[in-house]
Structures are given as C-alpha cells and as structure tokens.
Amino acid sequence: MNSIAVYCSSSDIIHQDYFQSAKELGKAMAQNNYQLVYGGGMVGLMGEVAKSVKYNGGQTLGVVPKALNIDNVVNDIDDELIVTDGMRERKAIMDERADAFIGLAGGFGTFEEMFEVLTLKQLGYHNKPIIFLNIRGYYNHLLAMFEHIYSEGFAKEQYRVLYHVSESVDDALEYLKSYQPPNLPDKWFI
After folding, report:
1. How far apart are CA 44 and CA 21, in angstroms?
2. What is the distance between the alpha carbons of residues 106 and 139, in angstroms, rounded to a whole number?
3. In this predicted model, what pLDDT tens digit does every residue of 61-73 receive, in sequence order?
4. How many CA atoms lie within 13 A of 158 on its CB side?
5. How far is CA 83 from CA 15, 35, 158, in A?
6. Residue 188: pLDDT above 70?
7. What pTM was estimated for this model as a whole?
8. May I ask the CATH class of domain 3-177?
9. Where exactly are the structural domains of the chain?
10. 189: pLDDT strictly greater than 80
11. 23 pLDDT exceeds 60?
12. What element of type H or E holds 147?
C-alpha cells in the first residue's frame, strides 16, 4: 500500500478538533510513507492534511477539476497536480491512484465520494480498505443509518466488512497495516 485518498471538508469554519485530526493524519501518513491523494484544495481539512503531509516530508497528489482550479483555492505545494475536465474524471483518477480511502469529516461531497468507493467495493470493482475516521462522533448518525439499512433488509449485515470505523488516527493506521481483503458474498442482491 503506497497511497491513501482522503476525502474531507474544504470548510474553514468547523471545530478545531477536526483540524487537529487532519494534521495528525497527515503527519502519520508521511511518517509511514503513504502518499496523499486528495482534491487539491488549500483550505479546510483538505489543506490541513496536505500541509501536514508536506511539512513532515511526505508526498501529495492533488486532483482538481478545471472549474475549481483557481488561485488561492488550489494548493501550490503538491508534488503532482492533475487538472481534470470534471468531477467524474477527478474521482476516477483518485480511485485509480489510491490504495486505500479515508473519510474525515465533510459535507455532501465527502459523503458522495465515500459512498461511491463503498458501493464499488460492494460490487467487486476493488477490494481496498475504506475507513471512516469518526472524530467527535461525526459519523455516528450515518453509522446508525447503516444499521437501519441492515435491519430493514436493504443490505446484508455481512457488508459491515466493507468499511472500518476508527475513532483515532492511530487506529486507522493500524487497520491499514493489518488489512486483509474480506471475503464478500457472491451475490450482493439476494
């Protein structure tokens, strides 16, 4: 495993605990020689993770669509920057270049990106680790919704192995180091 896609907020008006976890994640990634694959933004948690990776001697790959390739929005510190025509191409490149996925706290875009890699894993398109970094209980309501999905029969309970929930950066990195792809049911729809 060489690279981790981190999906997260681009907002600067969120609780400082989220920024601290982003900084810790970036440092841990650099110290463990994981390249950051991310949306290329210099603000919010995106910018914090990237700055921390770079400050600690790590490598970053930013992937940004043309529409967001704007001065003072896109980082100028990345080792590699890929500019795409649109969001779909951006996500495809991030999926392809990442060996694992971590969701820090974020808004609609973060949820959409995490759900896409989760669905692709369920369908057998990849078998890469997916981690929800649950700082301040951010994902508690989503995880309760997952339990509701299982109890109502919309997904098999066996699909809990598709993702891991970490309460700390240390736990997330330990999960990555020991990750073994799960054996998934042959038929996801029965």
Report:
1. 12
2. 10
3. 999 999 888 887 7
4. 11
5. 30, 18, 38
6. no
7. 0.95
8. alpha beta
9. 3-177
10. no
11. yes
12. helix 140-151
